[in-house]
Amino acid sequence: MTDSSGDVDPFEALLAELKPEVIAPKVIEPTADVAVLDPEETSTILRLSIRESLFRVTGGATVELGDDPLKIVILKAAPLSRMYYSEAYTDGQSKAPTCWSTDAGGGLPAIQVPIDNRQAAACLNCPQDIRGSGNGSSKACRYQQRLAVMLADKDGVLQLNQVCQLSLPATSVFAKDKKKKGLQTYAKLIQDQGALLSMILTELSFDKDSSTPKLCFRPSRVLTDAETEVVKDVQKDPQTKRLITFNPKPYVDDGPSMDNVFSTVKGDGVYVRSL
Fold it and tell me: Pick from 17, 49, 44, 77: which is nearest to 198 by CA?
């Protein structure tokens, strides 16, 4: 299928690749297109920043990647969360939110939030969840979703030493434009085919029509069997789980995590974990 510009629709091409007979197990090649890991580069938590609509890798020496489309593999996703900051963001400063919920579907402040900081007993009744409580007509408490992603270079070679945390604002999560798909619309399309996001090399690009950083998701290609085996190993790494865990205090491993939280749809398109 082609769009109005005459270009082949990447989603149509991908869906053809995801037919059961195509993704059936194959013999794994002895080598994969994966960059060699440098063990000395694994101790620092890397973050993929999208501030000012530019890709940057931070956490060590900042690496400027520019605003060109970026290829990644989505390894893990945290449940949708909410964050409220009583003070405006100051460039260069990192502060814990005043109040937050790490399971927006449940709608309760996280148990780690100090009692005096809780804005309401439940998110549904919170004054910070009303339009106009933030700047202009926005809400002061905002949705956010954390991903653990592995970067690929311009040739699509996976970079094992570039596993990063990516925090998505609501505009990048919920966008439903057919040509500028947000994360949840994209995830649903992939999973409707019985596939996983971690099977796909995904292309991230900035919505040039948005006044704030907003990411669009589209498929690049299906991973090879060898790449998929590498991805599975990285998903099991405790450091990967740490990337999607929010804890303003020293990190504590609180048990098993899920690789895939995009499973069922609730309400107006908010994905929740399967029981």
Answer: 77
